[in-house]
Amino acid sequence: MAAMKIGAKVPDLHGATADGEMRLRDLKSKYVVVYFYPKDSTPGCTLEAQDFRDHHKDFAKRGAVILGVSRDSTKSHANFCAKQALNFELVADTDETWCKAFDVIHEKVLYGKRSLGVVRSTFLIGPDGKLLQEWRGVKVAGHAEAVLEALDNARA
Length: 156
What we know:
It is a single chain. This protein is of the alpha/beta class. It has one domain: Glutaredoxin (3-Layer(aba) Sandwich). The protein is built from five helices and nine strands; from the N terminus they run βββααβαβαββββα. Strands 5-4-3-8-9 form a five-stranded mixed beta sheet. It is globular. The model has no long low-confidence stretch (mean pLDDT 93).
């Protein structure tokens, strides 16, 4: 599947969360930050989640909602949320619908072993449902701040 283009309408995806079911269309009129990460409770993914958690108020003040997405189960997400006191939803993309729509599953090499995995990526969707910006191959340090800055620019 080809990557979504900046300015393109994002499909109305829906998914399971620890609290039930959510749909992107229900977030219309808000900015939405969708970040994809490889696995709950791993070092880099935990740091990234904590960073978004710690900046949650800054995003909310700007009318933005944060959604984390991985291929983990809702049970795994519920445990991760509880352990890290996360204040935003995590979508369990067990069938990879979201991952495929945003084209974030690619070959990765870890310790010389090749495998298909989720490439850490973030997407900023505007209130009109169109893709405003994307970050692929994200480095965790300073990333939440970079997304906030892009959000400020989009709102200006």
